[in-house]
Write a structure and sequence with these properties.
The protein is an alpha+beta fold. The chain contains 14 helices and eleven strands. The strands form four sheets. It has a four-stranded antiparallel sheet with strand order 4-5-9-8, with no helix packed on it. The chain has a three-stranded mixed sheet with strand order 3-6-7. The chain has a two-stranded antiparallel ribbon with strand order 1-2. The longest helix has about 35 residues. It is globular and about 80 Å long. The model has no long low-confidence stretch (mean pLDDT about 95). Bound molecules: flavin-adenine dinucleotide. Flavin-adenine dinucleotide (FAD) binds next to strand 3, strand 5 and helix 14. The site of flavin-adenine dinucleotide has 21 residues, from strand 3, strand 5 and helix 14.
Length: about 400
């Protein structure tokens, strides 16, 4: 094959395996998730029957998650999540929410911790389980360094004791395994934090208030209260030796970029961007099809420049968001550092695209777009989350601003 034919070593073509996986996930999203979206949005409950179907199909499983996470191009997760969220974002988040807890353990944990704690986060098709990643608190949202939940080590029993309250936890209180970020040395801010696994059934962990939301209502969000929660020493993610070495380095004034929660969010940003791309694409496709069928002034509205230009902008924005997402995902998988905040760029652009494109879809559907008889109003409500969680758009701009100016922008 000539250099030209092989793309000169650069390719945006998905492998056959990825295309097969994409088509398989799409088929599930189209036949199972999309038809159930409205019902579970109204019910505002975790869609257990859909999760069961996903588990039976092998889609909600540690195997599928690990296979896509380790897929060599890095595009396994973005391709799969785009299809799921094309189906429905609330149900999609119920299926992938465990992933954040799994990444928190797999990206910082020891081999033993990964082998012990990832399986009980997913369960099996006959007995589904969930995982939850608990970082945010009432007074520590964007400002993760302000976390007040404390973890204190008791050497005599080799136990950590956790106390505090977490806000906004996806799967909070209904998860089998909770992964909690807590401060072990408050004086060190985010550099004095560590991540802990709270095993199933641990006393002292309970669900607080369940949150009633604007969108992604099929995904459960709740407070998690930690009242003298005792976990064995082996539940400190990464182990005590590594934590002690890290803290000693920080106390000696050494630089340390290993912030417990931040590392997880860095790794998962392209995945969140892919979710937003899925919602935006769904809205674009729906609005395009509607514009071909809806006749006003004797011709399809898609034939008017006003609507066609809107569709053109929507199509361009979705493609641009996807390309930025794929770039970041490829970089993350291939250990190319985000020196220019490429992860944040993908999340910022995809999140804002989803909000804009779903709003444009409502506009194209006119009055129908504003009703619950059509899905675009729901998708617009769902899309808004992508400018808020896993770092708001402003926080992404801070990170990008620092990267492009080299200044300590605050
Ligand atoms: C549905 C949902 C699910 C969630 N799931 C989880 C989860 O599973 N686990 C978890 O730990 N958390 C979760 N979160 C929490 C989420 O990550 C936080 O809501 C988010 O980080 C923002 O924090 P905040 O809500 O406290 O807003 P704030 O930090 O109070 O921000 C309020 C506003 O101020 C802006 N702002 C703040 N600081 C700055 C600054 N320095 N410069 C410019 N603007 C700034 C923000 O951008 C925002 O517009 C979830 C939230 C929601 C809504």
């Amino acid at each position: 094959m000539s250099e030209h034919e092989s793309g000169g070593g650069f390719s945006l073509e998905l492998s056959q395996d990825l295309r097969d996986m994409r088509d398989w996930v799409h088929e599930f999203a189209e036949s199972v998730i999309r038809p159930a979206g409205s019902e579970w949005d109204e019910r505002e409950e975790t869609p257990w029957p859909v999760l069961e179907q996903a588990a039976k199909a092998g889609l909600y499983s540690l195997d599928f998650f690990a296979q896509q996470w380790l897929e060599p191009s890095g595009l396994g997760i973005p391709v799969a999540w785009e299809e799921l969220f094309w189906g429905d974002a609330g149900i999609g988040l119920s299926i992938v929410g465990t992933g954040l807890a799994a990444v928190a353990v797999s990206s910082n944990g020891t081999h033993e911790q990964i082998a012990e704690w990832l399986p009980p986060m997913f369960g099996d098709p006959g007995d589904i389980k969930l995982g939850a990643f608990c970082v945010s608190e009432a007074d520590a949202g964007s400002d993760v360094a302000a976390i007040r939940t404390r973890a204190v080590y008791h050497e005599a029993t080799d136990e950590w004791v956790l106390n505090g309250a977490k806000s906004w936890v996806t799967n909070g209180g209904i998860a089998n395994v909770h992964v909690v970020v807590a401060s072990v040395d408050p004086a060190l801010g985010s550099r004095g934090q560590a991540t802990f696994i709270v095993p199933p059934g641990t006393r002292g962990l309970s669900q607080g208030q369940k949150v009633r939301k604007h969108g992604i209502r099929a995904s459960h969000t709740a407070e998690v209260v930690l009242d003298d929660v005792r976990v064995p020493g082996r539940c400190l993610v990464g182990g005590k030796e590594r934590l002690d070495a890290r803290l000693a380095k920080v106390r000696d004034g050494g630089s340390n970029r290993e912030h417990a929660a931040m590392k997880t969010f860095e790794a998962t940003r392209p995945a969140v961007a892919a979710m937003a791309v899925g919602v935006a694409r769904a809205a674009f496709e729906y609005a395009r099809d509607y514009a071909l069928g809806r006749v006003q002034f004797g011709r399809p509205i898609g034939q008017t420049e006003g609507v066609a230009f809107m569709l053109a902008d929507m199509a361009a924005a979705v493609d641009a968001a996807r390309l930025l997402t794929w770039r970041a995902a490829w970089m993350a998988r291939n250990r190319v550092p985000f020196n220019h905040a490429e992860g944040s760029i993908s999340k910022l652009v995809a999140g804002e695209t989803a909000v804009r494109v779903t709003e444009q879809a409502i506009q194209i559907l006119g009055g129908n777009g504003y009703t619950r008889d059509y899905p675009v109003e729901r998708w617009h409500r769902d899309a808004k989350i992508f400018t808020i969680f896993e770092g708001t758009s402003e926080i992404q701009r801070l990170i990008i601003g620092r990267a492009v100016t080299g200044l300590d922008v605050r």
